[in-house]
Backbone:
């Protein structure tokens, strides 16, 4: 079974785009959505997708407060 | 100072005491090098945190343009100007360590950058390049109030994405004017004023769930991008 980190990476790489190109996040998940350059609309959308994928109930505020993808992984696994 | 014929920004709109400039953020290596040279060490460091070239370029072009616009307005040199952010991430500017006495705000999306500068200290601008998304319905249910959702439900399907971005930029512009972000306020608490939902381009509005002030809201978008300007009215 895929790890949480792999599933988060896949969720990002399959759903987020910057300048019309899919985002490609590598092994290091200590990156923020801001550093990827995704828009605030994308951050909200990503939060909803994460809710569906992992059965979370992240609010818009929660999504905006997640500093890095690793932090999201830790939250899911925690 | 950047010579007039080499500037990558131009005045886009002027509303009361606020001027909105549009920056050309398209790829141009020579111009980007010129812009990057204007940034201080902290800004250069920030630009390096962007993983992809597009977002980095937009930040560099807009920040350098903001620097030039402020220097011209204040009559200071680029080296005298320094930026910081409040605890809530609202940017502020200092000239020789003194706060400047007017507001400014920057937004960029895709091929477009907007920079608003004006007398009101509480001033926010937001731009979103218009584009199709697969998840509009999901987003609409997440960020809009019931009243806004009702209005959108009456919009014909092909215009729905335009209206989504129009409303979104209003919410973001108000949040940015207040120095708040999505991290502190649910966007549905800022309801797009009824006048704008009815098709007006400008109105005075209150947002009692987050602020006691009266705000001027301007829809400054066009066919290519949605954009809104919000500033506090004295």
Residues:
């Amino acid at each position: 079974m895929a790890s949480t980190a792999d599933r988060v990476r896949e969720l990002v790489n399959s759903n987020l785009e910057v300048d019309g190109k899919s985002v490609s996040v590598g092994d290091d998940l200590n990156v923020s959505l801001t550093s990827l350059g995704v828009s605030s609309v994308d951050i909200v959308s990503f939060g909803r997708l994460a809710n569906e994928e992992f059965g979370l109930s992240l609010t818009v505020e929660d999504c905006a407060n997640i500093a890095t993808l690793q932090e999201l992984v830790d939250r899911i696994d925690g | 100072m950047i010579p007039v014929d080499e500037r990558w920004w131009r005045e886009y709109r002027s509303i009361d005491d606020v001027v909105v400039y549009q920056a050309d953020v398209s790829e141009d290596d020579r111009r980007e090098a010129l812009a990057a040279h204007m940034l201080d060490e902290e800004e250069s460091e920030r630009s390096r945190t962007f993983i992809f070239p597009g977002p980095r370029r937009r930040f560099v072009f807009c920040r350098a343009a903001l620097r030039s616009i402020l220097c011209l307005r204040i009559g200071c040199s680029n080296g005298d100007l320094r930026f910081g952010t409040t605890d809530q991430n609202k940017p502020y500017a200092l000239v020789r360590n003194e706060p400047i006495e007017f507001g400014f705000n920057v937004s960029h999306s895709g091929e477009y950058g907007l920079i608003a500068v004006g007398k009101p200290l509480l001033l926010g601008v937001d731009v979103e390049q218009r584009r199709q998304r697969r998840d509009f319905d999901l987003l609409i249910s997440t960020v809009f109030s019931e009243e806004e959702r009702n209005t959108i439900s009456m919009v014909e399907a092909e215009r729905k994405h335009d209206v989504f971005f129009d409303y979104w930029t209003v919410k973001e512009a108000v949040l940015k004017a207040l120095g708040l972000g999505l991290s502190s306020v649910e966007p549905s608490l800022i309801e797009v004023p009824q006048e704008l939902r009815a098709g007006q381009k400008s109105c005075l509005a209150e947002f009692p769930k987050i602020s006691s002030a009266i705000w001027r809201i301007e829809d400054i978008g066009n066919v290519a991008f949605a954009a809104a300007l919000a500033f506090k009215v004295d």
